[in-house]
Amino acid sequence: MVSGDDQLLAAVLEPRRRAILRILDAEGGLPVGHLARHFDVSRPAISQHLAVLREAGLVELVPEAGRNHYRVRPERVADARRVLAALVGELPGPTAEEVAAAERAAADEAPAAEAPSGEPGAGGPSGEPAAEAPSGAPGAGGLSGPPPDVALEALARAPREQVFAIAATAAGQVLWLGRAEADAVEGGPFHVDLGGDAAAGTYRVVDPPAHLAFGWGQEGGPFAPDSSRVDLRFTETPEGTLIRLEHRGLPAEAHAPHLASWAYHLPRLAAAAEAAVR
Question: Pick from 27, 72, 74: which is nearest to 54 by CA?
């Protein structure tokens, strides 16, 4: 069962839904047709976002002058702020702002050295771009790569093959993540409708039933498709299947929102796999 706090997080972590809340708050309420004029997506897409916000209690529908207007519920927005603040407070280490400031300071202090074309360090030995490291090698986002920006685990009391099938097929992904266009094929497109917006990238690893990896980004969002990478690994245990999710390559400001988002979706994967074997 999804908790009220998880539902709030899922609603406000999507950038377009936050924009909807800001516009409705500034305008004091709008009908869906007027609201849709502020965006470059269809009216049905805006209606889907509003349905999510309304289900989370963040907006309400109020009859006004013969039309239904959507209005922000300030008390629920305050609840969402509280939940987000509590989530960030649970994370170890420095805040995202402190990390970003340290990265900027390090970049300012580092000398800008670029190897000339044809010399070592300019890609390959003749200046060609360096080949992408294979999965699991340093820099590839595998087990030996950089530490993940987000790492979560969930236990599914279901066989590993069943869990992988739910994770990697279009019919399974709609149960835990969103409406997908196709089953996972290595080198093929990853594209999932998140309720009006889309996460997109390329499937990097499809190794049933042990490992699934795909590029991640948002079409029309703050970072492009394939600009980060998600790895899902499935380990058989006496209790069922341990699912480990690692997300790398996220900008610092996206760490906390994606942690909350995956904390919502990963248990849904486990639950969908368990339901499939009952």
Answer: 72
- What is the model's pLDDT at position 42? 81
The pLDDT of residue 258 is: 84
**Number of DSSP helices (H) and strands (E) in the chain, helices first:** 9, 9
> CB-based burial of residue 103 (10 Å sphere; 0-12 exposed, 13-18 middle, 19+ buried)?
exposed
Domain ranges across the chain: 4-88, 144-276
- How much is the pLDDT for 114? 46
What is the DSSP-derived secondary structure letter of residue 250?
-
Topology annotation, domain 4-88: Arc Repressor Mutant, subunit A (1.10.10)
**The pLDDT of residue 196:** 65
pLDDT number for residue 107: 61
What local confidence, expressed as pLDDT, does residue 106 receive? 62
pLDDT, residue 128, reads: 37
Number of Cβ within a 10 Å radius of residue 77: 17
Q: What's the CA gap between 158 and 269, in Å, rounded?
A: 11
CATH assignment of 144-276, given 3.90.550.10, 3.40.50.12370, 4.10.375.10, 3.30.530.20?
A: 3.30.530.20
Instruction: DSSP letter for 252, please.
Output: G
Q: Any bridge partners for residue 64, and if so which?
A: 67
DSSP reduced 3-state for 61: strand
* Neighbour-count burial of 107, counting CB atoms closer than 10 A to its CB (0-12 exposed, 13-18 middle, 19+ buried): exposed
Residue stretches of the chain with pLDDT short of 50: 1-2, 112-144
C-alpha to C-alpha distance for 231 and 214, rounded to whole angstroms: 7
